[in-house]
Amino acid sequence: MIDYSPAQNPVQITFQDDHVLVANKPAGLLSVPGRLKEHYDSLWSRLVVDFPDIQVVHRLDMSTSGLMLFALTKDAERHIKKQFQYRLTHKVYYARVWGDVEQDEGLIDLPLICDWPNRPRQKVCYENGKPSQTHYQVVKREAQTTLVRLLPITGRSHQLRVHMMALGHPIIGDEFYAHPEAQVMTNRLELHSTELSFYHPRNNELTTLFVACDFYKEAKEEILQHFTADKVLPDYKLLKST
């Protein structure tokens, strides 16, 4: 990691109660501390000052912005981690990608594995890769780029970035997978976790949160035609039976 100097803006907390906390992670900030002392600054390390019992239940890439869910109790941590394990959570991302995406929507189904000689890069591998699926939907076609909405069914490392690259449309600003022309179009990776749904550990009720992204100001909270939570989330009874 080179020149790690994230902006020192206050953390934006979008939801908080006695059980969970959801924050809007800025691009360029680690989700959790890195191995080196100079990489301690992270969303978790900033939050733990005021919430000493806060627990990490999932992560976002350093370059990705958007909603991150944390547990504030051990019971909530167990509850939410089990939801991620059994894919009972629902996340929607916005991304701006290179080129004109031909199909209005589709499913990318490509197995992924770590590219060990070039880690942290990942790659498509049909022999040893883990199953990985991403739904996509075109939101807006622009002069050189396309704004898309992405729904990851699985949660592999760099999944959205590699899948869009494999489709021929790398996310602009991507330092790992975009070609030089797409890299220099913007000063950040234009990938943002905008919607998050989960079953609240207090009462098992479906909770949906939304935060707009800085590179698409028109994004508004809405019931998505193709990606509504009730279409993609298994019933919570499945979790209780496992």
UniProtKB/TrEMBL annotation:
Enzymatic class: isomerase
Family, per entry: Belongs to the pseudouridine synthase RluA family.
UniProt-listed InterPro entries: PsdUridine_synth_cat_dom_sf, PsdUridine_synth_RluA-like_CS, PsdUridine_synth_RsuA/RluA, RluA_PseudoU_synthase
A molecular function (GO) term: tRNA pseudouridine(32) synthase activity
Originating organism: Vibrio algarum
Protein name: Dual-specificity RNA pseudouridine synthase RluA
Positions of the Pseudouridine synthase RsuA/RluA-like domain: 19-164
Keywords: Isomerase, rRNA processing, tRNA processing
NCBIfam families per the UniProt record, alphabetical: PRK10158.1 (NF007543)
Reported function: Dual specificity enzyme that catalyzes the synthesis of pseudouridine from uracil-746 in 23S ribosomal RNA and from uracil-32 in the anticodon stem and loop of transfer RNAs.
Superkingdom of the organism of origin: Bacteria
Gene: rluA
Catalytic activity reported: uridine(746) in 23S rRNA = pseudouridine(746) in 23S rRNA; uridine(32) in tRNA = pseudouridine(32) in tRNA
Enzyme Commission code(s) on record: 5.4.99.28, 5.4.99.29
